[in-house]
Write a structure and sequence with these properties.
heterotrimer; A alpha/beta; B mainly alpha; C mainly alpha; B: ABC transporter involved in vitamin B12 uptake, BtuC; about 75% helix; C: globular
Chain lengths: ~400, ~325, ~290
Amino acid sequence: MTDTMKSGGLGRRQFLKNSGVAALGLGVTGFPSVLRAQAAPVKIGLVHPVSGFIAFSGSQCREGALMAIADINAAGGIKSLGGAQVEAVLADSQGKPEIGASEVGKMAEEGVAGIVAGYSSAISLATSQEAAKTNTPHVVDVGVSDSIMSRGLENTFRFGPGYGNIANFAVDNLNAINQASSSPAKTAMIIHEESVFGTGTANLLSERLPSIGIDVVDVIKHANPTRDFTNIVLQLKSKQPDLIIPANYYNEYVLLARTMRQQRIEAKGIYSVLGGAASNYKFVNEFPEAADLIMDCNHWFNPKSEVAMQRKTAAEAKGLIYTYEVFLAYNAVLGLVDAIERAGTTDKAAVNEALAGSNLDMSYMPYAATKMENGQNMGAAPVNTQVQNGDIEVIFPSEFASAETVFPMNG
Amino acid sequence: MRQLALLVALFAALAVAPIFIHSAVWMNLIIMVLYAALLGQAWNILGGYGGQFSFGHAAFFGTGAYTIAVLQVQLGINPWVGLVAGGMLAMLVAAFIGFSTFRYGLKGSYFALITLAFAEVLRILSNSVPFTGAGVGLLIELNPSAANMQFVDKASYFWLLLAITFIAFLTVWWIGNSRFGAQLMAVRDNEDAARALGVDPFKVKMSAILLSGLFSGLAGCFYAQYFLYLDPSIAYGSSVSVESLLVPIVGGLGTLFGPLFGAIALHTLSEVTRSVIGDLPGASLVLYGILLVLVILFSPRGLSGLINSLTGRVPASKKKEENNG
Amino acid sequence: MPDLAIVLPSVLNGLTTGALYALVALGLTLIYGVLHIINFAHGALLMLALYGVYFLNTVLGVDPYVALFIVPPVMFAIGYTLQRLVITKASHGRDENILLVTLGLAIIIENLALMGFRSDTRIIDTPYSFEVFEILGTFIPQPKVYAFIGAVVTAGLFWLVINKTDLGRAIRALAKEPKGARLVGINTNHVFAMSFGLGVACLGVAACLLLPTYYVSPHVGQGFVLVAFTIVVLGGMGSFVGALLGGLIIGVVEALGGLFLGESLGQIGIFVIFIVVLIFRPTGLLGHKV
């Protein structure tokens, strides 16, 4: 560091995770899980909104990223750097883009080798742009907005899918489900939250649904928080769509599902896209009846992969609910460390180049082979899940499916 | 005059700071402090000198921010033009809010709440109309050049902000030393007495809210150019309104340097609590809250009150009349 | 254009939702009407009460309606103590200090909750969560009907306390003439703290009636604060009947606004009404002081 002013006063929030968790994943054996004292640790910045309105998701991201670091260290650290351990530098964006960006600035100066950040699209936009100023490698964990990747930043990468991809996938799969059904859906109503993820998704869906013969009878945008969903559900009741398509955060999803049950809504199916709750074990456990047979198009792991299931078990052993935030942040760290491993250096340009050429084996995800294009992993894809008998099953695409689709749900 | 000399000296010293500070982190911190001071000074004109507490300065801030962003993204208009337009439109919003409230004599907590309601109306509207990008927000294309008011280095952003902030502080210095300022403070301290002396409270308060709105709007323009992304809750959400009032109240209401003290104190507090406490979610904010409460318990007139009492000087602002609701 | 057949159910639903808002606003109108302070910590205290109801239910198995006998008294004690030990001391006679101190308290309480309870959204499951009454061909969830009754009863009780008791007379005197009240020997600090305590206790009632149809998380209170302030001003500050009426009106406006303008844009109705009332009738609909 060449500061003329002492930066010690700004504090270092470092967190060395040297846990006893057994070596998982990575497919590497033979390295003893002892610290190799001679190699300097490699610092990775984790910026997540662990306080404020989206604290739950932010904390889930942080936990997932920390698990990845623990696993990497237990498996021998970064071998091309003499088994260097990975050290997490933690920061809280408090849900505000400007605080996220400030934290990234601090981390860049502290000399982190890369940053995993965001959770929300708005924060990811700010953090990646700030990291770009120092060319610091930045992996977006969740942020699904396509505009994050369309700015041509050379340091910004995303291993998970964006919402353009997800919406297309959701429509194609819905078409397939519909075709296979004896009683296909002909009408749909979209209920989405008002920020970038809900609005963006809804716009894409309402554009494409007519092309597969589904008439969108109404699109309802609601605020966060919406304190009462009865009004929305009354409109559902009067329009009687075959399909209800929610795209919203967990709290609103829970209220919506509850209210639909109170008002005795009957539809052929509930097909959410990036629904906050339908792919959340907490919701399924707390509302087994309300959740039953809800379908979701969302980020998910590959249920047929040994590695994925081991990670899920390990996360649940720590008391975590295994939501998509956990494994997406886990993957983001894995992708970043893999790039450092291949680069054999923490030189920023080299790591960015390695990230751009990433071909990480992500068979524990329902992804095609990893292939980066303008920073976006083109192999990334969501899956369709359905809640069946109190569990979340993958129903589409068939190579990852663990159960058959039940549609229509009241048929 | 001593105050003016101090002000000019201070900003002159600040202007050369980037030559000595090469740390981007420190530059960013200074920028954020200055930005908070600008927000706070804007609020201080109306709240501190005019005694009209607003909970909705986001209405001005967001209008400035959206103006510069919408003009660039939707119409391809240069941000330097947008900066001027942003300030003007923020003033227009201020004129509308001021006219519809002061004309009916709203004050105290009624005024506070109605400004909040206006900000909410604007937030909801910006969430619904297409040209603001609604819920998806507006992303200003990254294209650094001075003509685009986007800079690679923090120092240039700093100088831009410093210039705006200097004008704001200069304006407040003028308020403290002019006939207009005397009238404004007279209206704050006792509206009826001021009227009896021939002051037109409506006119005076309108001028104050216009100036206040202008600088808040300029702060919004700066935010948009610095972070290049806006959505309705960033622009019109309550956190900007709260920061705007927190800064001058902590630093000292109705004082020239109060917003600067407040901005420095609050940012130092937030940085220190974050680095001291570590990573348990929420813990640093708890400490922040506790320290905030303690400061109020022991320094009831804000930091400049504290500084004045330490140096034995009479505070610039007299005790505000108790609000009778 | 929405189906006109759902206008009536929507209005009925708006009334029950509005009653819940009124419950949050009742406490606020007392605090605001007597102490003339804008209590930024109101939402945080509501959140605290909701956690109280939640843990009583999940840990001890106490039904939320039984918790009505436990949570409000505890909230009263919390409110009384806060006012006496922190807010009065910090005010130094200046409004802006009260503003800051309640803001500080809100930050502390919300983040303590985040530390202690984590950020998870929590819900309780009661036997009647999904039960409904059928009224005029509309399904109204039972908990909402109880909340409606609770709001009316609470408003009535508050009215009685303020108008028919010695404490109420002291509170009214203090609200009107703080200096005069002090002269005639009213212990102002005690009465202020009682008012604040009662206002906060009301949040305890609101929490018990709200949780069966809602959830709790550390920031849940903020969603209610703004709407509660709107109701207080709409009803006339310090007026309990006004708060009840204001709550019902806001509930219906929100429902109809959602129906005709869309759920997101429809929220604008609340604030437009608020602005119009403030401008043309700043004392509120039933505007007279406590």
